Amino acid sequence: MSWSKYPSFRQGDQPGTSRDERAERRYDTDVHLQNCAVKVFLITAVLTLAGCAYRLPTIAPPSQQLVRIDATAPEQYTVQVNTGTVKEYDVPHDGRIKVGIPSYRPSCGVYLFNAIKVRGYGDPLKGWIVSVTRNGKTVRRQSLRVTQKSPTDEAGYHIVRIAQ
Length: 164
Description:
The protein has 164 residues and is of the alpha+beta class. The chain has 3 helices and 10 strands. It has helices at 19-50, 124-127, 144-149; strands spanning 52-55, 63-70, 77-82, 86-90, 96-101, 109-112, 116-119, 129-134, 137-143, 158-161. The model has no long low-confidence stretch (mean pLDDT 83).
């Protein structure tokens, strides 16, 4: 509908609205735009200032891992632990040994907004290898982390079962 044939209305005016209503509507729109601009500015400032955070975990001190070799003749086996240097342990007749774990520092973690971890999942214990050998042949090979998660006996030794 063209309002140009009605002289009392200017283009853009609608019938039934007064100048005060139009001014109030325009004021509400301006306030809404200002509120949106303030919100956008604050969100941008928070995202810019928060950014990423780096967390450096504390050093894990040297420790010992209790391991029990579960086999029919455990004294026939030797255990090698590779933590960057290879250490070899002879297994006694009861199958229980204490494996030395050197000190280490887990990798640096990167956190988005200091809350959401996005990088730094490295675990040195997953890369350190425990090998069980018999007569020079490796019969079992697993990470030190897997060894730590294995079931324990009543004395607290982690059980490594060797299939016969």
